[in-house]
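Let us work through a complete example step by step.
Step 1: write down the sequence.
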Amino acid sequence: DEDIISAAEKSNSWEFIQLFPEGLDTIVGERGVKLSGGQRQRIAIARAILRDPAILLLDEATSSLDAESEKEVQEALAKLMENRSSIIIAHRLATIRDVDRIYVIDGGKVVEVGTHDELIENDNGLYSGLARLQFESI
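Step 2: predict the structure and record it as tokens.
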């Protein structure tokens, strides 16, 4: 259980898992405890931490989450991505803001490559336009 608890702590899941009637042994899903979208994402992150993959593939990891859940999931993702190669598909740029390299794909083609800071400097770039839309609304 130590590894499971450690993964739950790193994924920001342990706090809500402890509130379940049977803790780690609680059944979740249709016949058990219902999880929010953010809780499901954090449980998935805990599972990935336990598997310790060399390469991590994430597809829209924070889509359709409320602001608080998104923050918790992003913190957990940051811990999960430490010291491992990660490929992240994202429309929410906050998810990829701190990655080493961003590839912007439009119409099936790579149209921009760089870090967040490099890409936002290009006022006419696709990434820069998306960043203005997403970050100015915060």
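Step 3: interpret the result. Residues 104 and 110 are 6 Å apart (CA to CA).
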